[in-house]
């Protein structure tokens, strides 16, 4: 049945996003290709039928609106072919809408990753994205960086990191516990600390935001 594969794409991406709240699921290249192939077949068949209809009825009727052809008594065969054109065109529109929904859902998550994980994506997320999606993330990252840099340039401060505080901080310095092995981390003072599981450290809250969003640490006190 026309449109079934495209609808499955939409259902799959919604289910995957629910199960993977901090990452982006693998791009379903095979599923997208199947939908595009179906759309090409539908389009090619419509072109053939349209040309045949033009030979059976007045060409002006066909060009102006297929409704005229459907109501024409010139040819029962032409009416049947026109109905087929309508059906396939509807399927084409449905497939297009489903593909756009699939792509839009993924791009929305990719934008979210910039706020959750910072300007450099983990390799696991990069491997699940297409080349075009990686470029989209890079472009979005540049736009956001330029915007944050331009905030306040005519006022008392130069730039503002909008990703610094996802929630209003209660205090400047915080104690935090490392939840998993991370390795070296360099705060703004340049003194590298090694984040090992279950260790506790004390740093300014704004320097911990990215680690918090990545699930590397949890705040103990504020």
Automatic annotation (TrEMBL):
<comment type="function">
    <text>Required for correct functioning of the GINS complex, a complex that plays an essential role in the initiation of DNA replication, and progression of DNA replication forks. GINS complex seems to bind preferentially to single-stranded DNA.</text>
</comment>
<keyword id="KW-0235">DNA replication</keyword>
<comment type="subunit">
    <text>Component of the GINS complex.</text>
</comment>
<dbReference type="InterPro" id="IPR056783">
    <property type="entry name" value="PSF1_C"/>
</dbReference>
<dbReference type="GO" id="GO:0000811">
    <property type="term" value="C:GINS complex"/>
</dbReference>
<dbReference type="GO" id="GO:1902983">
    <property type="term" value="P:DNA strand elongation involved in mitotic DNA replication"/>
</dbReference>
<protein>
    <recommendedName>
        <fullName>DNA replication complex GINS protein PSF1</fullName>
    </recommendedName>
</protein>
<comment type="similarity">
    <text>Belongs to the GINS1/PSF1 family.</text>
</comment>
<dbReference type="Pfam" id="PF05916">
    <property type="entry name" value="Sld5"/>
</dbReference>
<dbReference type="InterPro" id="IPR036224">
    <property type="entry name" value="GINS_bundle-like_dom_sf"/>
</dbReference>
<dbReference type="InterPro" id="IPR021151">
    <property type="entry name" value="GINS_A"/>
</dbReference>
<feature type="domain" description="GINS subunit">
    <location>
        <begin position="87"/>
        <end position="151"/>
    </location>
</feature>
<dbReference type="InterPro" id="IPR005339">
    <property type="entry name" value="GINS_Psf1"/>
</dbReference>
<keyword id="KW-0539">Nucleus</keyword>
